[in-house]
Design a protein that fits this description.
Number of domains: 2
CATH superfamily of the largest domain: Metal-dependent hydrolases
CATH architecture of the largest domain: Alpha-Beta Barrel
Bound molecules: zinc ion
Strand content: 15-25%
Structural class: alpha/beta
Helix content: 25-40%
């Protein structure tokens, strides 16, 4: 059998560090997947990696094009809210074409790899030309993202978003929303077309943009439509088709939902959709105690985006109650105001500390390390939101790993129980030295092989877009 072997003193396997581990990797049939992870082995068993090896993280929520406008909506003066930010975003979205999207996303995905993300769930709604006319190939914008992920080397879960109405009252899309729109049949055709391209590093799910953008009957029709689609040809273990939705991000959205559907958004969704572990509810910021407990019990993932939620002034997710109820979480960089595993997990905890006036809110007596608790749960939830088969270095999983920089002064005097806490809470120097996706190296010694060309192309595109042409 064609295999490669890697050795490290401390490898994160089955949700914690194990000592002296040899990873055997398939180079044949299930290429890039872990065959075995044996602790207590000897150093001469294969290529020796750095002292600390952890699984790659899934970034479960991304709108790639927004990376290019990060920093352009930080000027105050008016009554600035999510809704005023959205106007800036719409103006920017109106100028991004397929080549622009490819250039922006490739740069972004390299930044993600360097941050320790090895899979990205792209919540994609920029489908058509700015006036709403489909491109000659209706999948053109989706394919730009597929190209970008392949060129960067990151795994991609593409989630084309269904976007049909401009509000809970069913009003038509505004002029600036027209390029987002689909009918149910056109949407399902796009999904089928993209699923034919699935591979070990590319799979397709669906996104329902939000309850305000998807009428109830359309939601039912799409869920029924995808349930009839044949099983995925992708070679990832236990691949299931993910369903993502933005929900309860804003108080205004909760009030509109109450007024027009007589229920809060999470409450309504749990009553009207078969929410289970295939689902990822992005944000879910504004929930009652009952909604929090009920969502946790479904097995669905709460997709948390702490840096974006802070940047947009969304509010704080009820993390403690949700974790205590056994809820699944993952992290996403969403608007890409920050692209950092460290910052998402750090601010997830810090937001809670600031509001509860307590420390180590996410930890518990069974899981006393705050960093390990958050890292473990975000790995598992992120993997689930991407369809499974990721997020651990156990046999059968895709081999996505991050080698931490054990020469960094930050890790001096640290033993394994403190390594994740130190990485996530101390300092700002990146500890992500090498990154492998599906058994292939894409970052070595902090660098991507193609980063100069890709950043030059990104610069040219963004300079033009920023000038408004
Ligand atoms: Zn979003």
């Amino acid at each position: 059998m064609d295999v490669s072997r890697y050795f490290s003193e401390h490898v994160w396997v089955n949700s914690g560090f194990a000592a002296d581990v040899t990873l055997q990797v398939d180079r044949g049939g299930a290429a890039g997947h872990v065959l075995s992870a044996d602790a207590g082995s000897t150093r001469d068993a294969g290529e020796t990696l750095g002292r600390y090896v952890v699984p790659g993280m899934t970034n479960l929520h991304s709108h790639a094009f927004q990376r290019a406008m990060a920093g352009l909506a930080e000027r105050g003066g008016n009554d600035d809210t999510f809704w005023s930010w959205r106007e800036v975003m719409y103006a920017f979205a109106g100028r991004v074409g397929p080549d622009d999207l490819r250039a922006i996303a490739t740069q972004l995905y390299i930044e993600m790899l360097k941050a320790g993300y090895t899979q990205v769930c792209e919540f994609h709604y920029l489908h058509h030309q700015p006036d709403g006319t489909p491109y000659a190939d209706p999948a053109e914008m989706s394919l730009a993202l597929v190209d970008a992920a392949r060129d960067a080397g990151i795994g991609l879960t593409l989630l084309p978003a269904l976007y049909m109405t401009g509000g809970f009252d069913g009003r038509p899309l505004s002029e600036r929303q027209r390029r987002f729109g689909h009918d149910v049949d056109g949407f399902l055709r796009l999904i089928e077309r993209l699923r034919a391209l699935e591979s070990a590093t590319f799979n397709v799910g669906i996104a329902l943009h939000s309850l305000r953008a998807v009428p109830a009957d359309a939601m039912r029709a799409v869920l029924e439509g995808i349930s009839g689609m044949p099983a995925s040809a992708a070679s990832r273990e236990a691949a299931q088709m993910p369903v993502h939705i933005h929900v309860a991000e804003q108080i205004g959205e909760v009030q509109d939902c109450l007024a027009l559907r007589n229920a809060r958004p999470v409450e309504w969704l749990l009553d009207h959709a078969p929410v289970d572990s295939r689902w990822c509810l992005v944000h879910a910021t504004h929930m009652t105690d009952a909604e929090t407990r009920q969502l946790a019990a479904t097995g669905a993932v709460a997709g948390l985006c702490p840096t974006t939620e802070a940047n947009l002034g969304d509010g704080l997710f009820p993390l403690k109650a949700y974790l205590d109820a056994g809820g699944a979480i993952g992290i996403g960089s969403d608007s890409h105001i920050s692209v950092s595993v460290v910052e998402e997990l750090r601010w997830l905890e810090y937001g809670q500390r600031l509001v509860t006036k307590h420390r180590n809110v996410s930890a518990s007596s069974r899981s006393p390390s705050t960093g390990e608790t958050l890292f473990r749960r975000a790995l598992a939830g992120g993997a689930s939101a991407a369809g499974g088969g990721l997020g651990d270095l156990r046999p059968g999983a895709r081999l996505d790993l991050v080698v931490l920089d054990d020469h960094a002064p930050l890790l001096a005097g640290r033993a394994p129980p403190n390594v994740i806490d130190t990485w996530l809470f101390a300092g700002n120097a990146s500890l992500v030295r090498d990154v492998m996706v599906a058994g292939e190296w894409h970052i070595r010694a902090f660098r991507h092989r193609d980063e100069e060309r890709i950043s030059a192309r990104y610069r040219a595109v963004v300079e033009r877009l920023a000038q408004g042409s």
